[in-house]
Structure formats: C-alpha cells, structure tokens
Amino acid sequence: MLEVYQEWIQNLNSKKYAIRFGEQITKYEKIFSTCKNVYKNFLSLYTGNEEVETQKTIEIQLLDVEFNLEEFNSVLDSINKVYYELGNIMYPNIGGMQYEQLKIIKIESGSIWSMLFGNENILQAIAKFLNKTIDFVFNKFTIEGKLSRQQEIHNAIKDSLEMTETLKEMGYDVDESKEEIQKAFLCSTKNLVNIASKSAKIKVNDEVHELNDTLKFKYLEENKKLLLTDGKDTDNESKE
pTM of the predicted model, to two decimals? Predict the structure, then answer.
C-alpha cells in the first residue's frame, strides 16, 4: 500500500493512480474491520479461568479446514448468537446478564476452538441442536449430492430440530406461539447451519460427524456457491 501511496503522491493529477490508491484503502479498511471484529469477539469470549466445571463446557471442533479471519469470526459469532437466543428463551425473566456469559477456555491448532464455558443448560441445548443440525445437513447432502437453498434448508431444519419439544423435555416452559420465540428459533437455526456448513468433519463434545472422503470437497464447494447466490434470500429472511 505504501508503494501505491507514493505513486499517487507523485502523480496527484492522475485519475488512474487516484483510483488505484482508493481501491487499496478500501481493501485494507475491510481487513482492519475484520481483524477488529475478531479481536472484539475473542476478547469478549476469552477467559483465563482454567478451573472450570466440566459440565459447564462444550467442545466444538471444525476439523480438516483452514479458516481465514472472516470465516473464523463468522463461526465465533454464530456460536455466540445461538447461546444468546437460547438463553433468552430458557431464561426470559432474568435477562442475558444474569447467567454465565459464554467464554473461550482455549483455542487449538486444526480447529476453530476446542472448548467453551457457559451456562450448563444452554450448552446442553446447543449441543443437542448442533448435533441434530449437522446430522440433518450431512445426511441430506449424502442422499441428494447437493445442498438446498438457504431459506429451504433453514425451514426444514427448524422443523426437524423440534426446539420447543426439546426445551420442554429439559424442563423449560416455551410458548412457540409468541413471535419473539419464533424469531429466536429462526436466528438460532440460521447460525447452527452456518457452523455446520464450514467443515465436512465436525466434533461436538464426544460426537464426531464426518462426510465420506469423496464428498468432502464437493460439500465445501457447494456451501461457498450458496453463500454467493443466496445472500438475497438471507437478507429477506432477516426482514421477515
């Protein structure tokens, strides 16, 4: 960028160099913004407390994939959003600040992270729903050899997860007729799918999900295509 800047300084009246310098500023502005978001999320979720209760942790590993900063931040943000949405459903009268906030215990090479600390019941619900989501997406891809458009898969998974029934079995009174509950379920589903789409081998606690070797590359490529083509669908869902 310094070289481009120097070229522009030496050619201040040149439209070509001005445009080139502007493109460099935009490029590095995006990189800085991504780094800032990653740092912000990491700082808010990090805990130096190594003496945590095992039952208040969840292990999530996205394996055999290299992640850039933007993808790393995307998965980190999705976990946090699911935790927040389920927490508000399970503890509607006390608010998110009254139970343990989600914290990172450690990050390991070869995965997004290995262990998170938080409210025991919320983490149990996340593990149940994430395992079901991964099973659904992987099985559907194995059978059909392709992925459905985002809006279709979100609706199908939302129905298959049976969130209301699962939370009621866990002892929580959930009124699915309320609009805010439905919005929370939809938001959770979208973020669970985002996590499941990032790797063809995922470990949630002791449960490992893995596609056949012949399908792994195709699965990741299909997800990249859907991210590019279904952006408008995602925007429309968020407005509903």
Answer: 0.72
